[in-house]
Amino acid sequence: MSEYGNALAGGLLIGLSAAILMVANGRVAGVSGIAGRLLQGIQISSGALFVLGLMAGPVLYRLIFDAWPSVTVTSSWPLLVTGGLLVGFGSRLGSGCTSGHGVVGLARLSHRSIAAVATFMAAAILTVFVAGFFG
Amino acid sequence: MNSAVFRLAATLVSGVVFGFGLSLSGMLDPARVRAFLDITGNWNPSLAFVLAGAVSVSALGVVVSRRLMRPLFDASFHLPSNRAIDGRLIAGSATFGVGWGLVGLCPGPALASLSLGLPATILFVAAMIVGMLAHDRLVERKSAGPVGDAGTEARMSLPH
């Protein structure tokens, strides 16, 4: 399949995952929320199972396609730490990330999520633009 | 059969489908994500298809869920009740966006790619966890200590 076909098929599956969690359990498939609550000791069993499932995804991909999905990290270690801190802190402060606000919030037409997605897309695009001058 | 078991099974299935979808879509690759965000440079628009596909099926789930009195395996829906577009939402989202743009990893792909055992993503996740804990320490002082499930429910379950 082409790059675009895979992107669409993968996206449909991500949406299916969110739909399962919504219809079956009445919950938002928001990774930062699930991870954050797990760290607070809230909903430990469901949080741990979801994260384990997430990690099993690439393993299943490996079993089917006989290769790991490509993960190309070019950032230096200080940049990885900075980025990780900002992503962790910011996603909790903003009550969501690409999944909770993006995949589920937009689907619910939540005004908060629309504002959040517009903000983080703009910030990310601007960051990549500015970083382009440094590296 | 206990509905708690079904609930946990649905959570696990949802996680696996999510992780596999991320792997198939290309979202797991920070280089692809950064190329998607690089709209003034060598733009790779393929990841827009990920978002479009994901939001449309997720919206189907929302439509179905709104026809239900309650979710299949739980007594009520647990949805965010806060409707205010406030400083926290915007500042948090902007902070998250800067980190996402810097590295090209957001929480889902970062956690999923742990299974590849790459030192770079492990370091990123460790820093992300520190960032989340720092948020709880610095911002959510009032809820010091683990909040019970009941407290969360009260905060989260409101008209759908």
What is the compact description of this entry?
The complex is a heterodimer of chains A (135) and B (160). Chain A is 76% helix and 0% strand. With 135 residues, chain A is an all-alpha fold.
Tell me the helix content of chain A.
Answer: over 70%
Q: What Rg of chain B, in angstroms, do the CA atoms define?
A: 18 Å
Rounded mean pLDDT score of chain A: 96
Structural class of chain A: mainly alpha
Oligomeric state, counting identical vs distinct chains: heterodimer
- The end-to-end distance of chain A, rounded to whole angstroms, is 32 Å
Descriptive labels:
heterodimer; A: mainly alpha; globular; B: 7 helices; 64% helix
Structure description:
The complex is a heterodimer of chains A (135) and B (160). Chain A has six helices and no strands. Chain A is an all-alpha fold and 135 residues long. Chain B has 160 residues and is mainly α. Chain B is globular and about 50 Å long. Chain B has helices at 3-25, 30-37, 47-66, 87-103, 107-112, 119-138, 149-156. Chain B contains seven helices and no strands. Chain B has one domain. At the A-B interface, helix 1, helix 2, helix 3, helix 4 and helix 5 of A face helix 1, helix 2, helix 3, helix 4 and helix 5 of B.
Task: Map the helices and strands.
The complex is a heterodimer of chains A (135) and B (160).
Chain A lengths: L2 H23 L5 H9 L4 H22 L11 H17 L4 H10 L3 H21 L4
Helix pairs in contact in A: 2-3, 5-6
Chain B lengths: L2 H23 L4 H8 L9 H20 L20 H17 L3 H6 L6 H20 L10 H8 L4
